[in-house]
Design goal:
The chain is of the alpha+beta class. It has a single domain, classed as Glutaredoxin, CATH 3.40.30. Helices cover 28% and strands 14% of the residues. The protein is built from 5 helices and 6 strands. Strands 4-3-5-6 form a 4-stranded mixed beta sheet, covered by helices on one side. A two-stranded antiparallel sheet has the order 1-2. The longest helix is centred in the C-terminal third of the chain and has 13 residues. The two termini are 30 Å apart. The relative contact order is 0.18.
Amino acid sequence: MESKSGIRKGSRNTAEGKEYKMGFYDITVKNAQGEEVSMGDFRGKVVVVVNTATGCGFTPHYEPLEKMYEDLHDKGLEIVDVPCNQFAGQTPGTDEEIHEFCTLKYNTQFPQMAKADVNGENAIPLFTYLKSQKGFEGFGKSPAALAMSVMLKGIDKDYKKNPDIKWNFTKFVVNREGEVVARFEPTASMDDVRKCVESLI
């Protein structure tokens, strides 16, 4: 049974950034239709969880994400899309509007969750858990990475020291055993994300 917090009863939800006594499969998330989706439904699958936005410079990541989903879904890949409006207000639409945008522009077929917070006191348990398992390890050294570093310093001078999601299209990869094995910042190459997923399929 799930509680309203999105965590199965009997599991202990601790404050953000502290160790969890639950696992990935204990978490539930509301989809765009308001229904609870259990991560336990994805047991034995490779799962990519990503916070998305419709008006971001990284929004074209939807295209390689969809291609990866079409190529690997039958082999055991699932993608969990969580729209979020916490980063420069780049996802202002309703769940229905977001779904229409993604399906019409990128023909996305992977499941879309309800728009939600991924940082702060209202962050959904899924992202609080993911952040507790894989913290921030840097943006890399590409021009986009350097630009993100400069921008983030203006928002949070201590951004390197906390596990918070830094921007849209941060991706977590979960293996078939429910372990969070990788975190890719939005500046990471989608080719690298795919290589990681393919190594687990």
